[in-house]
Request: fold
Amino acid sequence: MADLPWTEKYRPRSLDEIKGQNKAISEIRDWMRSVRAGKVNKALLLVGPPGSGKTSAAYAIAYELGYDPVEVNASDLRDRTHLKYVVESAKAVSLLTLNRRLIILDEVDALPSEGGALVSLVKELITKEGVPVVMTANDPYERHLYEIRSLSKVVRFYRLRWTTVLSVLKEICRKEGVKVPDNVLRQIAVNSQGDLRAAINDLESLVKGSRRLSEVIGKKFGKRDVEADVFKVLTAVFYGENCYSAYLTSLNTDVDPDMLFRWVEENLPYVYKGKALSRAYDYLSYADMVRSRIIKTNNWKLLVYYTQLMTYAVCTAKEGKPQGVKLRFPEIIRKLATTKELRAKTREFLSKLAKELHVPTKVVRMEIVPILIADSKGDGRIIKRLERDLGLREEDIREILEDLEEHYKLEVGG
Amino acid sequence: MAFELWIEKYRPRTLDDIVDQEDVIRALKGFVEKRSMPHLLFAGPAGTGKTTTALALAHDIYGSEELLRANYMELNASDERGIDTIRTKIKDFAKTAPFGDVPFKIIHLDEADSLTADAQHALRRIMEMYSATTRFILACNYSSKIIEPIQSRCAVFRFGPIPEEAVRERLVMIAEKEGVKYTEEGISAIVYVAEGDLRRAINLLQTASAMADQVDAKVVYRVAGLAHPEEVRGMINAALKGRFVAARDMLRNLMINYGMSAQDVIKQLNREIMASKSIPDKIKAQLMVFLSEVDFRVTEGAHGDVQLAAMLAKLVELGESHGGPSLD
Reply:
């Protein structure tokens, strides 16, 4: 077992081990009941984002039913004689285990050109032969899946909450006997955006030392060569004697000015201190204002000031020789990217609630959210009500509240 | 009512149910009888019943939930993105005739005083454009912040803070109905903290009762402190002590995770700095100059996080030259 990648080693073996998909699991169990009763009239189509547990569920279904899983892939579908063989063998029990067989078709949305073959295969297996079929897809609304959808019971898997991802990562660390600081695990979990497979891969490569955390976390942003350009400009701005040449350096690169701005801003306080920092930030805030004027008036002639202020002017603000530091990726860009989805959900939640309660959203933030947080720790009665009345999932509401809670520092009880 | 939230559950539904603001209610009942009314302007502090009264008035005029839903629209000026989106929403709502046998539709625009003067002039034109089919109820904290031409087109009603006794009665009534255990001091603490804001009082009661088995003064004061994120104070203190990066992290947390708008942060910064006993007056004055500039630039479309970070850098510099003071 030691050599298996962790995503395989820790793949759930039973449906109960699949985290954070309670609703989906209970729907799957309904379908399994009809299979057990010998009524296979629909295939099962598991849809949802990557790393949410679909493939694991497919294998766990086979295991729990006591069937042998047979995975059919795209190339099988292209080859008609082979396909015939698949169907024939699927009908019979396995000679090895004497078990019946369950067909698994992974990622059917990635097979647009095999749509026709797919439909006839599923039809044949289900309607003629009574062989259970489980399919997975990220996007069930691909056009070629139109017919498949009507042949299937569709079960939706949701993007995992980062707290769920975190608990799995912790469990793996415990089983592996490795110590990873909580804040690092947390970062990996948040960064995974609900993709458990990606999170486990990140954790494994981190623990096994093949990549450093900054690379693991930073991989989704920015390309290497752009970074090299940025470093050149930043070095010239922060450490160069000749500020004009620092400005020229910025002109000779492909870096987007807004991106460069964020790099300068991020690293500034590590390099400059005190009066120099305040002066340089003054220039940056001025540059930012110039930017808003450019956008407002569509006056792109002003762009030159934007760039000059963030390079030349910031360069002049230093006093003496600034200290050398390791340059870091703009935290704010990462933050905005990783929390984008949750922020949108939070906004929607607050404004729906504001509407229902006839109050401004700031009142919801200040006065209602504390009630809901306290409720979520207790019997959760109000939240269940909201799920019905606002048409939002309880899990989502809880995730939003968990995130908001950090800012309220609520202590319940005591 | 569907909600388990008490401000909604115990909201009076009709004008008869409203026990406070008697003068206002008497006048409004006249409109209901005649089934006609001018545009209205409700002025008064938060939590004094402006929204509830508007809803109850509409309820009494329309006579049924169904007609209310079809003919009543609520907008919040500070939640909408500028006068253009408000105009579009009003246009979509007002362009069709009132539904059912009712004289007009009602548009309730809350926090109208958050609109700039220019936007209010635009609003005035919108009000005129649709006056054949709609009536406006504008709500604001200060009528002085509403431009003259709008005020002169509206019947103005003033809502005073709810008297302490009335707040207390209401709280006790709800606590009894909900089976909440409380002490006299607990209720008094809520009345004291809420300062005549009945909505806040009821929300405090519900938060306190959800957090502890008994609502006493200790719980109430703890709960009341929660509403304003401590982090704003923490952020200022970190900056004054020269810990810029920590302060900037807190700022980003407030804005990105907590979702506070730059304007809210600015407002709270201003309040905290003004109220501080330990920051020397001369520094406060300099900070005011800087904060006003930040506020202006953000209004003009600059990035709130950048502008406020520049403000924090200024705090670091001031803190250094004055031996690292803290807020108190």
Remarks:
- The longest helix of chain B spans residues 281-299.
- Chain B has three domains: 6-158, 164-226, 231-321.
